[in-house]
Amino acid sequence: MIEISALQSPINNQLSITGSKSESNRLLLLNQLFENVLTLENISNSEDSQLMQKALANKTDLIDIHHAGTAMRFLTAYFSIQDGRKVTLTGSDRMKQRPIKILVDALNELGAEISYQENEGYPPLSIVGKKLTKETITIPSNISSQYITALCLIGTKLENGLTINLDGKIISVPYIQMTIQLLNKVGIKATFEGNTIQVPFTKRIEAQIVQVESDWSSASYYYSLIALSQNSEVKISTYFEDSLQGDSALQNIYAENFGVISTFDNGILSLKNDANFQPKQKIELNLINTPDIAQTIAATCVGLKVNCILTGLETLKIKETDRLVALKNELEKLGAIIRITDDSLAIEGYQDFSETPTFETYNDHRMAMCMAPLAQKYAIRINNEMVVEKSYPTFWEDWKQLGFEIKSI
């Protein structure tokens, strides 16, 4: 357990943040499919990306990806097309509770040979790699974008390409767009129009250098920190105004609702308080396209004692933990009155509280990091703080660099 205390002076510092986990894992798999012709710069140093790299290099028949959900989904698709190779793909106890049936069904419909070793619809999986020839698949569109991305990535190596028809209203559109744009960036002419994705068979791509932009989800904690501070500024790199990442919506969300101004200068993103901002009493946001920043926004609202209604959160229930329940449990320790449904979280007022809150993290990296900015308002404690290694291993070192005192209890 650690205890964090508020800074006594305004923040003014600069940090460098590791590359996006989402971009890194897509590019790592793509590079493997095309015989490593890409030189990838600023790859994420997250545990998830390290596990992805180890799994792709693993020549045995047992692949354990621990807590890495993205790796589980991408590698299920990857190993399904490794003709003649048999593997068992497994993970942590929590991973064995995270559904994967929709992706497995889609791959099996395309001709894959994947079966369940324990519980129907959940890892671990037995995969026999085959040559897939079917070229069209229809899947529900209200599913994790990682399922869709997994299909897009291997579609580049199916001899007839792959057409994916998405049935219904699409959630997490920016993550699908990121995948298509990364494919385009390396020379693969994939398209995403309406509810149809088309990925052509691509024999080879040109050798090239690809720079991974830093992670916007990780930037969210600094947006929150500035929102909870006064007369402060943090500079973080490497970020671009024309980002491929959906979480770059942070710029508008935090400007309009919390008075945090974003400016760019040669890859450096500066965040500072807007001196003329008028605080809001209630905030309403639909986060269906940006679910990974919902926890940060909820914690920011509690730190400012602002009411809110956050919707579009249906995917939060199947992450590392049920994030809606976890947020309710932990933010109520600061007196927040919270109501949750299957796809929303509402903060409806505040009560007094007296004890120093100790936040549980539920083996969820984002639960630890979204609570950290609250140290600007209260002395706080966080259990199992090293869970941040999943996506941002240097998080606590960076916060010490900002001037926070962090001590073990």
Automatic annotation (TrEMBL):
Pfam families (alphabetical): EPSP_synthase (PF00275)
Keywords, in A-Z order: Amino-acid biosynthesis, Aromatic amino acid biosynthesis, Transferase
Pathway(s) served: Metabolic intermediate biosynthesis; chorismate biosynthesis; chorismate from D-erythrose 4-phosphate and phosphoenolpyruvate: step 6/7
Annotated signal sequence range: none
Catalytic activity: 3-phosphoshikimate + phosphoenolpyruvate = 5-O-(1-carboxyvinyl)-3-phosphoshikimate + phosphate
Matching Gene3D superfamilies: Enolpyruvate transferase domain
Stored InterPro entries: Enolpyruvate_Tfrase_dom, Enolpyruvate_Tfrase_sf, EPSP_synthase, EPSP_synthase_CS, RNA3'P_cycl/enolpyr_Trfase_a/b
Record bears the keyword Membrane: no
Domain Enolpyruvate transferase residue range list: 58-399
Keyword Metal-binding applies: no
PROSITE patterns associated with the record: EPSP_SYNTHASE_2 (PS00885)
EC number: 2.5.1.19
Family recorded in the similarity comment: Belongs to the EPSP synthase family.
Listed name of the protein: 3-phosphoshikimate 1-carboxyvinyltransferase
